[in-house]
Amino acid sequence: MEAKELELIQMHEAEDPExxxxxDQHVGYGKMLEKLESKTYISPTETQEIxxxxxxxxxxxxxLLGLLDKYRTAEA
Length: 76
Known about the structure:
Layout lengths: L2 H10 L4 H21 L6 H32 L1
């Protein structure tokens, strides 16, 4: 995420529960991915889990950016 996007999230997360939930989910997926990818050996099951987490994280980021677009246009 870019600094401008992070700033928008911080400004609006208190008033927008969906935005906060998506952000928290995005951060959570990132931490899970980091933990899995830092292992010296990754099993086939973990490889599949990593792929699924990346898909979920990307889908959430897409929704998150859509919400942020709403706030960007409101500020412009």
